[in-house]
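User: Can you predict the 3D structure for this chain?
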Amino acid sequence: MNAPTFLAPPREGVPPDAAPAKADDGTLTVRDLRFGRTTRPGRWWLGGDPVATAWHNALSATFPKGEAFFIESVKSCRDGAPPRLAAEIRDFIRQEINHTREHVAFNRAALEAGYDFSRIDAHVDYMLGLTKGRRPEVNLAATMALEHFTAMMAHEFLANPAHFAGGEAEVANMWRWHAIEEIEHKAVAFDTYLHATKTWPARRRWFLRCLMMLIVTRNFLHHRFVDAIDLLAQDGITGWRAKVRLLAYLTVRPGVLRRIFPSWLSYFRPGFHPWDHDDRALIATAERELAAG
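Assistant: Here is the predicted structure, written as structure tokens:
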């Protein structure tokens, strides 16, 4: 597995061009895999649990449009990127295009199972509408925050088998594949931001990334919770019972939000870099499991 570009992460005030060189060429691994083309997942594909299924379906419903936004925000700030970062951006785009394709197929299967994603689409369209006309660095800071969310959850999904225990194998493999690549490219948007803001004062670039993380956290958690509740209502699970069950799933067992909180908090540290936490070992293990599956 290729090492990340900045194993010794640059500080907030140092441009990525000044980072120490590394042994390999900086490219990511683009795994062009396809899932669910011959079989369709059941309505409650994750261990027969409507709550777990609703949460992951709500995430997947946002990915196609969200990943298109990620690609455009990174592309808009890549001019003049050093060769190693430019190569990673190209492979990041290729990975995200493949993720979009597979989640389009997965979402289509969910629609065929009887779910309605129209309200989720409306939430995504509303949030993307707010990005129109903003400075490219602001949109990149939002992408950077969302990429940190996906990387944190990807780490948790690979590190803790409880998240997909009892899930249908083909779907679990799709999520495992996606998580591998989210970890692998977790610093690309961040390093692009360092490049795009290299002339900014360190305090300004730190303030923007922290502010956008707070905004993104509020919007992400609010909308994904509402979206999952919407999907649960389509299964006849409504009211306080739906909310309590979803909160318990997210914060108690398996408790993805509780478990990622320390990593979320670390984002606000001056000088933070995604590769401060080197979790490449999870990629190697998950790749072996994926190949065996």
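The longest helix spans residues 202-234. The two ends are 19 Å apart (CA to CA).
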